Amino acid sequence: TCAGGIRMSGWLLRGSRVLAARPLWHAHAAGLLAPVAPLARGLHASVEYKFSGHLDPLQEYDKMMHEGRLRRDEKQRAVVEHLTTLQKSVQGHAAAAPVPASSGGFFSSLFGRKTSEPHTHRRHGLRSVYIHGDVGAGKTMLMDLFYHKAAPASKRRVHFHEFMLDVHKRIHTLRQQLSKDAKSFDPIPPVAESIAAESALLCFDEFQVTDIVDAMILRRLFKILFDRGVVVVATSNRPPDDLYKGGLQRAEFLPFIQLLKDTCDVINLQTGTDYRALALASAAPKQTYFHPDGPDTKARMDALFAELTKGCPTPAPMTITFQGRNLHIPKAACGVAWLAFNDICLKDTSAGDYLQLCDHFHTIFLNSIPRMSLGTKDAARRFIILIDALYDRKVRLVFSGECAVDLLFCPDTGRTVTLHGQLLDDLGLKAGELPSLFTGEDEVFAFRRTVSRLREMQTTKYWDECAHSRS
Question: Whose CB among 100, 309, 398, 459 lies 3.0–4.6 Å from 283's, allowing a Cys bridge?
């Protein structure tokens, strides 16, 4: 483990892309599994729209707007126009076949000193799209609209965390198949080739880079994907120039940023409106967050857990085993699991563990969430990734904490100033030069999205959508 809690060897033990079927919902607790509610007016995020099969993205967007399901937003519409042009261009599109080349050293190639990419050329002239903007601007909804309408030879839509877990799993599998003497083998080209062979179009939600190993892999991986003709559409809260900002050895990552800018149309979606917040203002609240922690909070959560597991076998501990890892659940029954914050966010867990939770349970109880600060950055990062996984997989959450949701992450300004002064002296840096790895800037930025999602996860509408997505 190095500074900032980053596991340098973590890429070998990052978990896997989970393919197991999800368990059926346990439909006890009358009133909690109501029919899907009508679409909220103005909601532009995480809504399962029913799209028409014969309309292109722009026609579909205008139809939803005229029906009152979306508010008129010319900036969003301009993005849809761009995506509609791409949607028509990728019709039947397939990735190009590779021409093999000799391989170079693995670790040196990670840092760009040697290359072993197949010699290919871009033969399609299609540009990828990178959409960034503030929380609630509608980025995910627009990408999903495009994805639903696009008809290339093959396509895949995935959360970026989950995609990188899949990449690490493939690398790990290849390395296990090698003899101990094959030290110079470079697994990135065959991994990239396998991904390109499976998907001519890749749509990524929440494109972000926080891990040094991911940062070193991405340039070589995506260069091969782009050279093979894979088209990428990605959403992010950050522009390309801010990816992995302040990260370790960021200079090695800068060529990937340039690659994105060379191959993607970068679109800044700044609507000036948080549509998710507008929708939540009129959404029916559901009591699923309790604070402060104490006997009364525990009693209320116990009662809700008992109601959701009514008629089930007695809740008991269980262990999920995957990829040589054991994930221990203190209490579970009928697709409902109960964990403490310390069980899942203070231990050596990652996105792979959280995706396992999503595949085994439809409802998660999480108690005793503390107020997080610069001193607990690692726990905050894990919590952010956990909520991303639950939200993306439509898992219901009942949780309790020390304070109101908005106050769960506090940069702890006074302590931060003292720590910054010490670090500046230790590292020989000037004021303003301290990387965000140490300042908590990335966590503050990401937690804004987490708070928005936690608010939405406390609505009847979200719970109804969860039930619908697993029916």
Answer: 459
